Amino acid sequence: MKRRRIIVTGAAGFIGSALVRHLVRDTDASAVLAIDKLTYAGNLESLKEVSSSPRYSFLQADICDQEAMDAAFAGFSPDTIFHLAAESHVDRSIDGPGEFIRTNVTGTATLLQAALRHWRTLEGASRDEFRFQHISTDEVYGSLGETGFFTEKTPYAPHSPYSASKAASDHLVRAWHDTYGLPTLITNCSNNYGPYHFPEKLIPLVILNCLDGKPLPVYGKGANVRDWLYVDDHVAALCLVNEKGVPGETYNVGGHNERTNLEVVQTVCRILDELQPRVDGSKYESLITYVADRPGHDLRYAIDPSKLMGELGWRPTRTFDTGIRETVRWYLDNKWWWGPIHEKKYAGERLGRG
Q1: Would you say 314 and 240 are in contact if contact means Cβ atoms under 8 Å apart?
Q2: Burial class (CB in 10 A: 0-12, 13-18, 19+), 121
Q3: What residues act catalytically?
Q4: What torsion, rounded to 10 degrees, do the Cα atoms 118, 182, 105, 85 define?
Q5: What is d(CA 240, CA 245) in angstroms, rounded to the nearest whole number?
Q6: What angle do CA 22, 24, 29 make, to 5 degrees?
Q7: Average pLDDT, the chain
Q8: Other C-beta atoms within 10 Å of 252: how many?
């Protein structure tokens, strides 16, 4: 990244914190303002690595608060926005859709208005180079059959309250570009995994349940397919799109790493059998338990990243096999991070029964 002043919303979350760590540690960004409401999934410990840097600052604020967002833009004067703040867990959206509509839809509109007001005060190169980048999901496209891939031209067909709220936010970002000329970018990514991932999501949930000797819940028959993307590869894609992407365009980010949910769980079990065998000698796979499927569970997601690869030159650095091993090892080595979450915030209970 060039010598830019960057706001990252959702900065204490999984992908947001990975992006902030990268921007502060590995780029020439002149200043990074991390904004997060610090809901249950926000964790400042995920930013501990860069918290002492003079180029890093943190603001606890709600993106739905127009006054706070306007003040943040006026005080910090950014030229780049990475908008990642969102409620993101499908199961929680089934249990309580209202907060997803508030944060993902109203919050995005609020942030767009703050960005638009700020952008209109800029002149010359500062105005031309300003970017508002919205980070979204492949779930807005709905469900695929056994073949085919999502492209940037795939019609939207969301099936969960979460994916519907993200689809709405995508449309708002396009509308602010088309109506007001705000230079926006949208990325839609496949399932992320890696370090600092809140343990309600599949991979960290399986790892920690294994370590606790708890059942490993697999929805239905475990046949649902997801395309897995290592979080640092996603972060690299986000920065590349920000530097080289064309305003008004959408770029899909995926790693061609399709696995069924059952295959993911079995892979984690095999790695743990090797790295930290059970005391009684039994295999972790014996903990797999099949449970009632999630309501409206999409069968398959798979991204075609040809546009991102062909036009901007992005390539992932991890396969699923290398990335998942790295991830399991990280959780084994970093109980200081997930232990307090496990004890005080979320201990693996089932969500999203509908």
Answers
A1: yes
A2: exposed
A3: 138-139, 162
A4: -60
A5: 7
A6: 105
A7: 95
A8: 25
Who's near 289: CB < 8 A, 6+ residues apart?
215, 216, 217, 218
Q: What is the C-alpha to C-alpha distance for residues 241 and 187, in angstroms, rounded to an integer? A: 8
CA triplet 304, 310, 313: central angle to 5 degrees? 110
For range 149-173, the mean pLDDT: 97
Say whether pLDDT at 353 is over 80. Answer: no
Q: Which amino acid is at 109?
A: A
The pLDDT of residue 348 is 66
**CA 291, chain centre distance (Å):** 26
Distance CA 109, CA 269 (A): 42
Cα–Cα distance between 313 and 240 in angstroms, integer? 9
5-197+229-257+300-318 belongs to which CATH class? Answer: alpha beta
Q: Which amino acid is at 244?
A: K
Q: Which residues contact 64 (CB under 8 A, 6 or more apart)?
A: 102, 103, 106, 107, 110
Helices assigned H by DSSP within the chain: 14-26, 66-76, 90-95, 97-100, 107-119, 124-129, 161-180, 202-212, 231-244, 261-275, 306-307, 320-333, 335-344
How far CA 144 is from CA of 162, 223, 297, in Å, comes to 18, 13, 12
CA distance 115 to 11: 17
Among the listed residues 140, 47, 39, the one whose alpha carbon sits nearest the alpha carbon of residue 87: 39
The CA-atom distances, in angstroms, between 201 and each of 107, 185, 235, 346 are: 23, 27, 19, 11
Average pLDDT, integer, range 126-147? 96
The average pLDDT across 270-277 equals 98
Which one, of 244, 241, 111, lies nearest residue 176 by Cα?
111
- pTM exceeds 0.85: yes
Q: How many CB atoms are closer than 10 A to CB 239?
A: 22
